[in-house]
Amino acid sequence: MTSEEIFDVVNERDEVIDQRTRREVHQLGLRHRAVHVLVFNSRGELFLQKRSLRKDCFPGAWDSSASGHVDHGESYDTCAVRELEEELGLILSNVPTRLFKIDSCPETGHEFVWIYRCQAEGPFTLQAEEIERGDWFTCDYISDWMKERPKEFAEALLLIWQRL
Question: Residue ranges of the chain with pLDDT lower than 50?
């Protein structure tokens, strides 16, 4: 029997009020926490990942370099470092730079999300269960692509891109 991930459920002020399984949190639309990390290279290009078709949310969509849920009792910063290692094989000695926080909303799947930034050149070791593939793109290319074909992106990334 596999143990299901446990997330902290939070209130409108991002204060922990309960713990529930991943499935319950998503089925009931409960507020919870996540991180998105944007990895740029020395040329200013952003690494985007194409989500696996097996993902329960936004399968096959382009998304942030690395992203994930904050586990029960975990901090946003610890989660950001963990997700980079799990999804990209990128091991950092420091926490990435915090850029801004997005409040829980439908576009984020009712997640409070801290957005981080770091620099790395790759190549990365992509987690096959989570990521179909990834590539580097210029910011101008991403902006044009989002205007022309927004449905190819996870909704949270579209919201993050507006705030950058």
Answer: 1-2
| Domain ranges for the chain | 6-163
| 79, 70 Cβ separation under 8 angstroms | yes
8 Å CB contact between 9 and 16: yes
CA–CA distance, 127 with 89 (Å, rounded to integer): 8
Query: pTM of this prediction?
Result: 0.93
Between the alpha carbon of residue 31 and those of residues 49, 63, 115, 132, the distances in Å are: 25, 20, 17, 28
Neighbours of 8 (CB within 10 A): 22
pLDDT value at residue 1: 42
Interstrand relation of 111-119 and 32-40 (parallel, antiparallel or unpaired): parallel
- Tell me the DSSP string of the chain: -PPPPEEEEE-TTS-EEEEEEHHHHHHHT--EEEEEEEEE-TTS-EEEEEEPTT-SSSTT-EE-SEEEEPBTT--HHHHHHHHIIIII----SSPPEEEEEE---GGGTSEEEEEEEEE--------TTTEEEEEEE-HHHHHHHHHH-GGGB-HHHHHHHHH-
Fold for the domain defined by 6-163: Nucleoside Triphosphate Pyrophosphohydrolase (3.90.79)
